[in-house]
Amino acid sequence: MFTANSMNCLAEALGLALPGNGTLLATTRAAGICLKTAGRRIVEMAKQHYQQGNRDVLPRSIATLQAFENAMAARHRHGRLDQHRVAYPGGGGSGGREFHHG
């Protein structure tokens, strides 16, 4: 698995990406379906926020401490890949659970 897929898996673990998107090959029909589904979902979420005032659909509400812990667990299941240490500094090198989330 390369960096883009690994980062997609982390986004998925955070709840910020659709399930399964991190393991799809970009050139497959399934990836195109996922892309369209994600586009529809983000428009739906924007309407929920801007038209109905729903703050639960904001990334800040979705990416909670529990979501970050889940993402770090996923990161460790992937074998603590080097790109995670570079592209995901919140995980730290030790696998600790101290997050600064405001």
Number of helices: 5
Number of domains: 1
The chain-level structural class is: mainly alpha
**Helix content range:** 55-70%
Unreliable segments of 5+ consecutive residues: 90-95
Percentage of β-strand residues: under 5%
Reading the helices and strands in chain order gives HHHHH
Q: Mean of the pLDDT scores?
A: 79
CA-based gyration radius? 15 Å
Question: Major β-sheet, in short?
Answer: none
Number of strands: 0
N→C terminal distance: 31 Å
Shape descriptor: flat
Explain this structure.
This protein has about 100 residues and is mainly α. The chain has one domain. It contains five helices and no strands. The protein has helices at about 5-15, 30-50, 60, 65-75, 80-85. Helix 1 runs antiparallel to helix 4. It is flat, with a radius of gyration of 15 Å.
